[in-house]
User: Fold these one by one.
Assistant:
Number 1:
Amino acid sequence: CEAEIDAMTWLEWGIPGLAVGGVTFTDKQADIIRRSPIKKLIISADNDKQGEKLKQAVINKLKYDVEIYLVQMPQGFKDVNEMLVAGLQPPRYEPYNPFDGILQLY
């Protein structure tokens, strides 16, 4: 999550959340996650260009270290907190495959 309120939203839905406190994901933050017991990471960035940039940064730094899932934010919502305020359930999330798009030759 970008903002702490989004991490708290996930906790409201029963899923522990972690916020980076902005749109930048540093090597230090990635290293903290690598050294933690976290094995599964749901990336829940805002539904905008900065959120996409954050999502790609997290993927690039952690794709081989933890199991990554990507949130499918419904159209019309900026973030998960907007969904909670609207009375909705958590958004769907799908597994990320770091090998998608790689040509396989047999």
Number 2:
Amino acid sequence: HIQWQTADSLHLVLFPLGPLTPSALMDVQDALTSLTFPPFSLQLHGIFHAFSSKNKRGMLWVEPVFSAALDKVQQQLHRLFPHWPQDGQAWPRVPHVLLGQGAPLDA
């Protein structure tokens, strides 16, 4: 069974930070105020899946086609957060739009 994301909850994950303490979340929010970029369009491709042994759930996602505009945003994020993403995260380390989660796809 797959629990699909609702249309209003779809979003582009650019830089997974993982679980954050309330203090770290405030630091991230403050840092993000310096992030600026013009609007841009994305083309999405592929359907990918992975299984997290930590939470025993599968994930389905699509990825954006490379674009210079998206690359510039990611470069800004890497400068703001040089120590993330942290090792051991279950999320894909590439930009993606999560479509749904559920039991492993081969179950």
Number 3:
Amino acid sequence: ITSNSVGPGLSAQLYNFGDQYINLAGANKPDAIAGTYSIEAWVKPELINTNMVIWSMSDNNTGNAQNVLRMTDLNRLEWVITNNAGSQVVRLQGPFLERDKWYHIS
């Protein structure tokens, strides 16, 4: 899904059809380095013991800076932020996730 829309109340829903993603175009994309934004998601892991990206954002124009929300191969929720040099500057670990159980992330 590619979006050129911005505003309150916008959402997208992805189903179990393999690898799916949303691409925010140009000016509608949050600033990966200095901007403020919030994300919210409902996730239900169907696979465990594997690294799975839930959400990520990067700015390839300025270097390696990125924000990644993922489930680790140890079934743990994790948020990682790296800087332009690719160095990890923040790593927050959340709870362990169970297979086929819904979780609200915000």
